[in-house]
Amino acid sequence: MSDDQSLSAIWYIGALILVLSALFARRPGIGAILRSLIGWAIIAGAVYMVVEQRDTLARLAERFGIGGQSVEGGTTRIEMGPDGHFWARVELNGVSRRMLIDSGATTTALSQATADAASIETSGGGFPVMLSTANGQILAKRATIRSITLGNLHADNLDAVVSDRFGDLDVIGMNFLSRLGSWRVEGRTLILEPADTSEHEAARPSVLDQS
């Protein structure tokens, strides 16, 4: 038995002792004890399955378009999804969202639902923006994202456009990527590096090949 298995066994035995102690301290009937034991067994089994199958669950997540995302050596790395695109886990004003990274989009674009959830207000005045999309031209409202975080990357006061015509799609555009120190694709991994604020260098983005 490995050390991990030994620790797991000790944990389960300790949890069982605590549950039994609590039950007998209240002196319930046999039926209540059996129901409680069955309930705890189901919970323990579910936790065990999640822990043991975490790799399988991660693969399933990638299958449904959610690529792996991690921070390594000061860079944020995103695995290409099965659809050939890069999807990032992003926080907008503290609200978590799944966003498509698109170097072909000039400006970051948000659905109306995401803007509402993250308390991002559109500008009441000024003219709307005309955007060309795969479904034709649409009108969008201007907005500003107070705070956006992707892995170890962060930006404040990022311009964005908002429209209910985007459906449930949220896109990170070039105006965010251009704030980075650099970004590139190696194989099926998108590597994003933060800007070197000490040198105030302009970002030098490369071409994102998502074919």
UniProtKB/TrEMBL annotation:
Gene3D superfamilies per the UniProt record, alphabetical: Acid Proteases
Membrane-spanning ranges: 6-25, 32-51
Domain of life: Bacteria
Keyword tags: Hydrolase, Membrane, Protease, Transmembrane, Transmembrane helix
GO biological process, one term: proteolysis
InterPro entries the UniProt entry points to: Clan_AA_Asp_peptidase_C (IPR011969), Peptidase_aspartic_dom_sf (IPR021109), Retropepsin-like_bacterial (IPR034122)
Molecular function, one GO term: peptidase activity
Keyword Transmembrane helix: yes
Protein name: Aspartyl protease family protein
